[in-house]
Structures are given as C-alpha cells and as structure tokens.
Amino acid sequence: MATEPANQQTLEETTIVDTDIHLSVSPAEVAEYVDEPYRSHMSNTGYSPLPSSGWDRNLRGKIDHYTVESPEDVQSTLCEDFHIDYPILNATSKLPRLPQTDLAVNLMPAYNDLLIDKYLDEHDHFRGLASLATQEPDKAAEELDRLGDEKQIVGAYIATTGPNPPLGDPEYDIIYKAAQDNDLHIAYHGSGGAFMFEFPRQNQAFEKFIEVHTMAHTWSQMMTLSSLIVNGVPEKFPDVNFTFLEAGIGWIPMMMFRLNKEYSIRRSEAPLLTKSPEEYIREFYFASQPIGEANNPEHMQQLIEMVGADSLSFATDYPHWDFDHPDALDKHLREQFTKEEREKVLYKNAADAFGMDI
C-alpha cells in the first residue's frame, strides 16, 4: 500500500465515526423505564441488576476512571476534544449474562428507550445500537422490529460473553432475520467481567486481571466468529453486516487461516458454506480498539495491512480505562494507507456497515 503524502489531513479535517462508545447508566435512570417490581426495587435501593466481576479494573486508583453520563459528556469529550463526528452509543453489554430471564427481557427495552430519549433525541449526529437480551431470541427479534423505524438506531448490540449456546446457533436465526428485515447491523462485543463466569477454567487459573483482560474479549469473539461461520449465518442472512468490537485485530488472521484449514478437511460439518471461511470473514468488519503495541511498529503495520482497509473501522471504546484516542490508530494509517484507505477506516467502512448516510 502506498504511503499518504506529506500534506495529510488532520483529524479535525477528517470525518470520523466511532463505533464503540459506552454510556454510564445508573440503576435509578433505567428504573424509570422498567416495570414493577423491578422499578421500585431499583429506584428505592439503588440495586443494580447487572453483575460485577469484582476485579480491580482501576489498579487501586492508579488508572483514571471516566464516565459518560450525559449527552454533554459525549459532545464535549468525543465530538469536540477527539473530533468524532458520529459517535455510535451503546447502553449496556451485560444483558445476556443475567441469570433472571424475565429481568433481562424487561431491561432490554428500558435501556434502549433511555438511549433514545436521553441521547439520540438530543443530537442528530448521535447514533445508537439496540442492546439485546439473547435469553429469549423471539423477544430480542420483537425488540428489533419495534425499533426498526428509529432512524438513529443503526444496529443491534449483542454481548458475546454470556450467550449459551454460542451466537451462530440456529436458535438465534430469528434475531438475524429481524436484523435483515429491518436493515440493522449486528455488532458483537465481549466482556472482561463476564469472562470469569463464562470460562470457569480460566477463572480458576488466573489470579491477575491482566491475564483475564488479555484473553477475555478475544476468546469470546473467536468463539462467536467460529459459531457464525460453521453454522452458515452469513450464508443464511447475506444482507446482514457484522462488526466485532473491542478485541483488537491480532486474532483475525489466525481465525481466517485456521478455519480455512479445518474446513478443507471437514467440509461436511459446515454444509451451508459455499466459499472458504476466509472469504466470509473478509466481508465482516472489525473495530480497531484496542490497537496493539508491538515492539517493532512494522509488525503492527503488517497486521493492519493483513486485515485490510476494507474491513477495519475505528473505535475508541470510551470511557473504558484502556480506550484509544484517534491518534493511536491514525499514526499507523498515515504511514501505511493511502488517503482513500485512511478515510475508509476512519468513517466510510462504518458508514457502509451501519447504513449511515454521511
């Protein structure tokens, strides 16, 4: 790939879509949208139904903790300080791991309505992802049908750490059909906190959060990707776009090439596929965050090139403690990609994937 010439555009002059921004929603806020008996319990006691892992994410206060509690937070930090033109917001990633199915299904429209009322209605350039509870796929599909006409809802947000069976299983086909019918994108997101519950062997072995957080999101996304491909989900729903968030990109070449190898030997176990796994995966989208930090920068540039400008989209993962400023990715784009390829990564791929007219 050619290198961008010296008269590069700055971030201020470039359109940017941020595909992964997490809102900080309090129990009291979401309680206003849920039914009884959950409303009173959450309002009166401050009870949070979402599970916590107990890990010390802030390293005994050494790592700064940020929150996004209002539209003003999004506008001031993401849009003005980081030069994000179109922030894509999500309200929660924890619904699929709640053990109480009725509560998860009740919270699903509550989080989505709060997202619309408090954030999307305030700013035309904000976009949102509808959080889904996968415990009852038919209810999740109904939620996508309910939100299908919301212009600023551009996709469905599905946690990959929690659903059982994995998300390629045919029981979830009703969700993917609803996404296809409503022209909504599917965005997958792992969880470091849920990893200790969903992968119990690792929970027994790991004693440091650095170990858990290194593995968690990537393993969840690898499991989901494998399940989607083997069960032929992209073949069954060819008009649905898929994005994988917050797992970086180092795992993608390994999965493409490994699945190619396995498929070449065991094609009968993936009978719906009409082309190689790599060809399907290259039609998916992968968010940049967390961008890796190779000792040799050339290796990171080679990895980005291997994934390709057509598949990569930008994300900050703000306000999480390990979020990426746009500069973290852009320094690689400037050195390696052409101006047109850089624009694909910073906004055009996301605009195409999420059906955004920008």
Question: Features of this protein?
Answer:
358 residues; disordered N terminus; alpha/beta; 44% helix; TIM Barrel; 10% strand
Description:
An eight-stranded parallel beta sheet has the order 1-2-3-4-5-6-7-8. The chain contains 15 helices and eight strands. α5 (137-147) runs parallel beside α6. The chain has helices at residues 27-31, 38-45, 71-81, 101-119, 137-147, 173-181, 192-198, 200-205, 209-230, 233-236, 251-265, 277-281, 297-307, 326-336, 339-353; strands at 17-22, 86-90, 127-131, 153-159, 185-189, 242-245, 285-287, 312-313. α4 links the parallel β2 and β3. The chain has one domain (12-353): Alpha-Beta Barrel (TIM Barrel). The chain is 44% helix and 10% strand. Residues 1-7 have low confidence and may be disordered. It is globular, with a radius of gyration of 20 Å. By secondary structure, it is α/β, with parallel strands linked by helices.
Sequence-ordered SSE layout with sheet pairings:
Elements: E1 17-22, H1 27-31, H2 38-45, H3 71-81, E2 86-90, H4 101-119, E3 127-131, H5 137-147, E4 153-159, H6 173-181, E5 185-189, H7 192-198, H8 200-205, H9 209-230, H10 233-236, E6 242-245, H11 251-265, H12 277-281, E7 285-287, H13 297-307, E8 312-313, H14 326-336, H15 339-353
Parallel strand pairs: 1-2, 2-3, 3-4, 4-5, 5-6, 6-7, 7-8
Helix pairs in contact: 5-6, 7-9, 9-11, 13-14
Described by the principal axes of the CA atoms, the overall outline is globular
Query: Would you state the CATH class?
Result: Alpha Beta
For the secondary structure, the number of strands is 8
User: If classified by CATH, what would the architecture be?
Assistant: Alpha-Beta Barrel
Compressed to H and E, one letter per element, the order equals: EHHHEHEHEHEHHHHEHHEHEHH
Low-confidence stretches: 1-7
Mean pLDDT: 89
Helix content: 40-55%
The neighbouring-strand order within the major sheet is 1-2-3-4-5-6-7-8
